[in-house]
Write a structure and sequence with these properties.
Protein name: Ribosomal RNA small subunit methyltransferase I
Distance between the termini: 49 Å
Helix content: 25-40%
Largest sheet: 5 strands, parallel
Strand content: 15-25%
CATH class of the largest domain: Alpha Beta
EC number: 2.1.1.198
Keywords: Cytoplasm, Methyltransferase, rRNA processing, S-adenosyl-L-methionine, Transferase
GO molecular function: rRNA (cytosine-2'-O-)-methyltransferase activity
CATH architecture of the largest domain: 3-Layer(aba) Sandwich
Order of helices and strands: EHEHEHEHEHEHEHEEHE
Shape: elongated
Function: Catalyzes the 2'-O-methylation of the ribose of cytidine 1402 (C1402) in 16S rRNA.
Mean pLDDT: 93
Structural class: alpha/beta
Low-confidence stretches: 225-235
Number of domains: 2
CATH topology of the largest domain: Cobalt-precorrin-4 Transmethylase, domain 1
């Protein structure tokens, strides 16, 4: 069986009892970063062999994992933090297992984008997760243009090295919409900044960026919305 196991995005106490049970019972753990996963395993006194499974070896490691599964072994896939397959390795392995007729399941748990959307104060019933945008300005702006007229709340991930460039491009492409930036979620210095894109850009220009950021931006014309307004109230 192939298990995709969600792990804490910060606070280790957020791991589920079922996740711990599976990590203790599988034959091998495929980790995005074996060192980071090693810290998690040590914290919960789990001793299991690990293998690297990340964006740079997905094909080769995927071959090995498929062979292990065909031999009847159980494999747990974990990323550095959060849910495998969401802006992290996992999708190709799931597709491979399905195509090969192998059993695959998932243990749900922390996902940074969901937490950020809820804490943003923006409409949550309809949103578009866009993940990491291109690194260069031209590509990033084209990436944003796709959703310029979308009414759905938009969710992006960005690194500390490009957060101000991202906000500047978002302001230029989308206009000065309501937005929120989440950082260090579930950790000691958890922070959610809310405001307009222009005010958040000013804030980030004055702060030292660190850690991964989740940016939540209001959809076009949908900055404040009651979900009940969308329901069909006809007789």
């Amino acid at each position: 069986m192939l298990y995709l196991v969600a792990t804490p995005i910060g606070n280790l106490d957020d791991i589920t009892l079922r996740a711990l049970e599976i990590l203790r019972s599988v034959d091998i753990i495929a980790s995005e970063d074996t060192r980071k996963t090693g810290i998690l395993l040590k914290h919960f006194d789990i001793s299991k062999p690990q293998m690297a499974f990340h964006a740079f070896n997905e094909q080769r490691a995927g071959d090995r994992i498929e062979n292990l599964l065909r031999q009847g072994q159980s494999v747990a896939v974990v990323t550095d933090a959060g849910t495998p397959g969401i802006s992290d390795p996992g999708y190709t392995l799931v597709r491979r297992a399905i195509d090969a007729g192998l059993e695959v399941t998932m243990l749900p748990g922390p996902t940074a984008c969901i937490m950020a959307v809820v804490l943003s104060g923006l409409p949550t019933h309809s949103f578009t997760f866009r993940g990491f945008p291109p690194r260069k300005t031209v590509g990033r702006r084209k990436f944003m243009e796709i959703d310029k007229d979308s009414p759905h709340t938009l969710v992006f991930y960005e690194s500390p090295y490009r957060i101000t460039s991202f906000l500047s491009d978002a302001l230029e492409v989308l206009g000065d919409r309501s937005a929120a930036i989440a950082n260090d979620l579930t950790k000691m210095f958890e922070k959610v900044e809310r405001g307009t894109l222009s005010s958040l850009l000013t804030t980030m220009n004055e702060e030292k960026a660190r850690g991964e950021y989740i940016i939540v931006i209001a959809g076009k014309g949908r900055e404040i919305e009651d979900h009940n307004d969308e329901e069909d109230t006809s007789d």
